[in-house]
User: Fold this.
Amino acid sequence: MGFFYFIVFIFGLMVGSFLNSIIYRLPSGESFLIQRSYCPYCKHKLSWKDLIPIFSFLILKGKCRYCQKKISWQYPLIELATGILFFLVLWNFFHRGKFRPHRLFVNFYLFPNYYFSFMI
Ligand SMILES: [Zn+2]
Assistant:
């Protein structure tokens, strides 16, 4: 079971990495699906070893491999936050008995009369 949590956490890191590319590219109208990731300063295309969530940032000490300019803390923070969020959602789904937002969501849409009956 622990391995499953680890896989979901890693998947969350990858989703966070993808979110970073969307956050960076969406305002400028660039495609975040087709174009390869690049350094915002020197525009050098990044290789696979520069794109491992969190680890690449730590190994490169927060600097671009090619131009040595500082990489924003936003990238590893969003990756880590998304990984933790994925982990917590899974944890909540399997382990916690009292607070289950997914249950609220499902119940609300399946049995809306139950919730609205208190309002009348
Ligand atoms: Zn660079």
In short: The mean pLDDT is 84. Residues 25 and 32 are 6 Å apart (CA to CA). The chain has one domain: 2-119.
